[in-house]
Amino acid sequence: MTPSQNPRKRGHLAPPPPSASPAPPVALSLPGFVADRAEAAARVERLLRYQFCDRALLEEALTHQSFSDGALSYQRLEFVGDAALGLAFSNFLYLTNPTLGPGALSTLRAANISTEKLARVAVRHDLYPLLRRKCARLDLLVGQFIESVKQEVMHDLATAPYGGSVVKAPKVLADIVEAIAAAVYVDCKFDLEKLWKVTRWLFEPIITAETIDEQPVTTLHELCQKHGKVAQFETWQKGGMTMVNVFVGGEMVGLGSSEQKVIAKLNAARDALGKLIGGAKQQVLINGVANGLVDEIGELRECKQKLTELCIGKHWPKPIFKLEKEGGPAHERNFVCSVQVDTKTGTFVTIGDPMSRVKDAENSAAQKMVELLLKL
């Protein structure tokens, strides 16, 4: 059979044999609806521990434009909520990260208020059933996303703040969160501090400068660096979505997509890591079978502790770490650290490799010191 005759080559499945029984349909549980509007409002108030002065704002926030009953939809509130949450997170991140530049702050904000993150907030707190709507397709899309999220490996909605679901997060879920936030904001007379106090806990765990360093882009760069490779990201647009391909050694090893460029890059890096560490693309990093790549990363991050324990065991002074060099643009900072160890026979200094985090730069220096001391 030639390729043109093979239906699979054209992206179609061959029909099953006549004797084959059709596969049973997959049952998808569609989201419910809380018809009692007083109960719907009460659920939000209990969730937020906030009592509205004007409940009409809350009803507006819980009304989709497909609900044709002359009622206002959440669109105006969603517009305000998007800006208010962006400003609230900007204030919080600015005050809690006095040394971060605008690039890093923008990345943190995007991670915290992305469509994927807010959609998971809506799913986690079961907000969609509170929405008045008349759109069967919307119910189907939301139902698919909820089912996809439930099947994620960690089974914890808060552990995937950057997205990564195989089903695109429906924007309506993020809209609900933004509209409810706006309802609070307007109800409390545009008091941004009050808005943050009422809604902050919904977004936990908030992505911080410390935790975002554990995100997949950083881990991917460090993994490639350990093996003398460079990860390259190629970005392009498709139907309003940002698509990102990851290349290592000239071979594509991952892809990701999102409405936001920074989130698409994170999703692509996560996909690449899954294939490089014990996956189909592990041979891209090294020749032969990859052995313990995850362990290697973990061991690097434990070297500072191992060096300290070694010094204590030898009755030497604690190692002295020093930041030797800091460079690169604000969103791609690189740090080089050194470590000094005073032994009974002399003083030794090692300088680590450039890393995207100070603590990893210290661990790199510590790793070289441990290797040196073991040779001695």
Please provide a brief summary of the model.
With 376 residues, this protein is an alpha+beta fold.
How do the helices and strands line up, and which of them pair or pack?
Layout: H1 37-48, H2 55-61, H3 75-96, H4 102-113, H5 115-124, H6 136-150, H7 171-187, H8 192-199, H9 209-212, H10 216-226, E1 231-238, E2 241-248, E3 251-258, H11 261-276, H12 293-300, H13 303-313, E4 320-327, E5 334-342, E6 347-351, H14 358-375
Antiparallel strand pairs: 1-2, 2-3, 4-5, 5-6
Helix pairs in contact: 2-7, 3-4, 3-7, 3-8, 5-7, 7-8, 10-11, 13-14
How would you characterize this protein structure?
With about 375 residues, the protein is of the alpha+beta class. It contains 14 helices and 6 strands. The protein has a 3-stranded antiparallel β-sheet with strand order 1-2-3. It has a 3-stranded antiparallel β-sheet with strand order 4-5-6, with helices on one face. A hairpin with a 2-residue loop joins strand 1 (about 230-240) and strand 2. Helix 3 crosses helix 4 (about 100-115) and helix 3 packs across helix 8 (about 190-200). It starts with about 35 loop residues before the first helix and ends with a helix. Mean pLDDT is about 80; it is low at about 1-25, about 155-165 and about 285-300.
Enumerate the strands of the largest sheet in spatial order, edge to edge or round the barrel: 1-2-3
Query: What is the SS-derived class?
Result: alpha+beta
Number of strands: 6
Categorize the overall geometry: elongated
Number of helices: 14
